[in-house]
Amino acid sequence: MLSKDGTFTAVKMMGYPGNFGDGNYMYKQDSTKLAQVGGSYLAAPTEFGTGASGGAWFVPDNGIVSVVSAHMQGKTLAMTGPAFTDTAEAMIAFVKGGCK
Predict the structure, then answer these.
(1) Closest CA to 51 of 75, 27, 85
(2) Continuous segment of H or E residues that includes residue 86
(3) Residue 73 pLDDT > 70, yes or no?
(4) What are the beta bridge partners of residue 14?
(5) Mean pLDDT over residues 27-48, rounded?
């Protein structure tokens, strides 16, 4: 289920990061949303490297709230992901309808 509810804090990220198992296996990363800046979320910590892009951000009992977009290095590795909007819902409905 797609969720546009940005009130979450705890989040589970899924993906195939290249720095674990050569990107051949799905991994889960427990993380915490630190902020929402405009249409993007920022969460940390994460150990995911490149290759996990597009993996889902799950919130228990709330569905998919974002996708892995980019990782940022600093004192803590952090991940960004877009906040879902009505446009994302419309795109999913379009694809489910056979792109018509």
Answers:
(1) 27
(2) helix 86-96
(3) no
(4) 28
(5) 92
SS3 49: coil
The position carrying tokens 């050569």 is: 22
Residue 82: cis peptide before it, omega within 30 degrees of 0: no
Angle at 23 between CA 55 and CA 60, to 5 degrees: 30
78 forms beta bridges with 72
Tokens describing residue 33: 């949303």
For residue 47, count CB atoms less than 10 angstroms from its CB and return exposed for 0-12, middle for 13-18, buried for 19 or more. Answer: middle
Supply φ then ψ for residue 41, to 5 degrees. -100, 150
Is residue 11 over pLDDT 90?
yes
pTM for this structure?
0.83
pLDDT at 30: 95
